[in-house]
């Protein structure tokens, strides 16, 4: 909705005068001030004095507020029945904030909330969905997390006319505002009503793992979270993404970790960063005892006693926590590169494969120890070797991909360890030609061995 104001002018005794701070909620207006003593101009008579503008607004605001009080709302249904819906949808452009009641402003902010409707691939203001839902539609509207297609499917299969959406910019104020006007959080509604995806349950009937449990529902398979490989940009490159599959309980193994409900998010996010073979089950009480799975607390206890090579030497994971120093984790197959960072005594650097970094990340998260999975190897290369650009060694360098860190750290490793300029150049040219992580790893190992033998021979 565009403001499209026709005119906004202030006059003092019939003479135009500047007063940009005077803002009125009308599409056009002319204000002629007749008392120069009360509304004094500046010495050059080009504009009103600040005090005059302040006094003018103090007098106008109560009168305007009372004059447009008919716009005030008490409920969403009042908005839906109003002939002035566009006014509420464009309240901020019309500069109505100072003249509407707090309740009306709260409703207007709700209407303007930007959302993404799950399953329909459209991003709209919430008022669009409210209009489509009609009077009383708040009871059929549900907010879920972005890309939470599973809960969206459950709600849609149980409530055919449900409007399921995610906030584009989730924050506490927006969530509380949804609650105030009866818009439910999807996971709460599912949990309170024991809802299941009817379409999925029907597809499981007669299949392995889909058994009727006596009350008309089907026993569903356990949802297990794992790290998978996603292909992007028409399959040109691969990246890690979290995947959820459903399997029988007897198919779980010792690499499956049980995470308590309510604490799962930071652990689940690791599965979108590290291509680990570990899997996660969230908040499940398994039927069979004993189980091959391991509880989070037990897993953390085991990893705490694990020894890893760092830039400060070998340390147990729990010793890293005791040190109080932040841990910087790098994805790279040769842990010995850590010794090249021994001068950085204020941080503990660990180089390792995805499984090792996942185990340490879970332990540090559980122990509330500061850490980060560092992906700035490209900056590290260019900072230490300004003549080299990481872009010349990678395919599609603008996209983070599986294998990028292996290639760049291989280059850094060779540049730090190999002193022979000719051998360096041969390796760098081979990397530029290859750009394949496994091949670069093999070439790096060969070059480092050759360099070590050459140094011993000397």
SSE order and pairing:
Elements: E1 8-12, E2 15-16, E3 29-33, H1 50-67, H2 76-81, H3 85-89, H4 102-111, E4 114-117, E5 122-125, H5 126-133, E6 141-143, H6 149-158, E7 163-167, H7 172-180, E8 184-185, H8 186-193, H9 198-204, E9 211-212, E10 218-219, E11 222-232, E12 237-247, E13 256-259, H10 265-270, E14 279-282, E15 294-295, H11 296-304, E16 307-310, E17 313-316, H12 317-323, E18 327-331, E19 348-352, H13 354-367, E20 371-373, H14 377-384, H15 404-417, H16 421-434, H17 437-457
Parallel strand pairs: 1-3, 6-7, 6-8, 13-14, 13-15, 18-19, 18-20
Antiparallel strand pairs: 1-2, 4-5, 4-7, 9-10, 11-12, 16-17
Helix pairs in contact: 11-13, 14-15, 15-16, 15-17, 16-17
Walk me through the structure.
The protein is an alpha/beta fold and 458 residues long. Among the domains are: 8-67, no CATH class; 113-193; 223-299, no CATH class; 379-458, no CATH class. The protein is 38% helix and 19% strand. It has 17 helices and 20 strands. The strands form seven sheets. The protein has a five-stranded mixed β-sheet. Helix 11 packs across helix 13 (354-367) and helix 16 runs antiparallel to helix 17 (437-457). The radius of gyration is 32 Å and the shape is extended. It starts with 7 loop residues before the first strand and ends with a helix.
């Amino acid at each position: 909705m565009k403001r499209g104001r026709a005119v906004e002018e202030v006059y003092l005794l019939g003479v135009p005068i500047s007063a940009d701070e005077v803002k009125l909620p009308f599409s056009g207006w002319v204000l002629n001030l007749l008392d120069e003593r009360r509304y004094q101009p500046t010495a050059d008579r080009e504009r009103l004095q600040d005090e005059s503008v302040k006094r003018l607004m103090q007098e106008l605001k109560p009168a305007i507020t009372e004059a447009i009080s008919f716009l005030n709302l008490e409920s969403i249904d009042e908005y839906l029945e109003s002939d002035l819906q566009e006014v509420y949808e464009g309240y901020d452009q019309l500069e109505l904030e100072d003249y509407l009641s707090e309740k009306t402003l709260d409703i207007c902010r709700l209407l303007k909330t930007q959302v993404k409707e799950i399953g329909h691939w459209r991003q709209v203001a919430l008022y669009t969905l409210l209009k489509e839902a009609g009077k009383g539609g708040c009871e059929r509207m549900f907010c879920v997390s972005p890309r939470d297609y599973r809960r969206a499917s459950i709600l849609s299969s149980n409530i055919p006319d449900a409007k399921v959406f995610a906030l584009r910019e989730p924050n506490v104020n927006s969530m509380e505002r949804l609650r105030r006007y009866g818009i439910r959080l999807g996971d709460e509604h599912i949990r309170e009503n024991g809802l299941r995806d009817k379409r999925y349950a029907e597809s499981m009937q007669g299949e392995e793992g889909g058994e009727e449990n006596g009350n008309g529902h089907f026993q569903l398979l356990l949802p297990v979270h794992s790290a998978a490989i996603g292909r992007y940009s028409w399959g040109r490159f691969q990246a890690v993404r979290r995947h959820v599959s459903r399997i029988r309980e007897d198919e779980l193994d010792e690499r499956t970790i049980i995470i308590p409900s309510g604490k799962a998010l930071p652990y689940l996010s690791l599965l979108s960063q590290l291509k680990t073979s570990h899997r996660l089950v969230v908040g499940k009480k398994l039927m069979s005892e004993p189980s091959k799975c391991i509880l989070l607390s037990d897993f953390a206890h085991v990893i705490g006693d694990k020894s890893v090579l760092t830039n400060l030497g070998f340390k147990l994971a729990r010793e890293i926590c005791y040190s109080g120093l932040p841990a910087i984790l790098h994805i790279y197959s040769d842990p010995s590169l850590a010794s090249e960072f021994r001068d950085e005594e204020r941080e503990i650097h660990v180089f390792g494969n995805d499984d090792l970094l996942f185990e340490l990340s879970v332990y540090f998260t559980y122990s509330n120890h500061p850490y980060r999975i560092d992906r700035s190897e490209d900056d590290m290369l260019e900072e230490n070797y300004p003549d080299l650009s990481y872009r010349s060694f990678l395919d599609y360098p603008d996209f983070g991909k599986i294998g990028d860190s292996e290639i760049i750290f291989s280059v850094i490793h060779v540049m730090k360890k190999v002193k022979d300029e000719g051998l360096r150049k041969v390796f760098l040219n081979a990397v530029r030609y290859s750009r394949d992580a496994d091949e670069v790893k093999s070439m790096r190992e060969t070059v480092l061995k050759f360099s070590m033998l050459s140094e011993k021979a000397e």
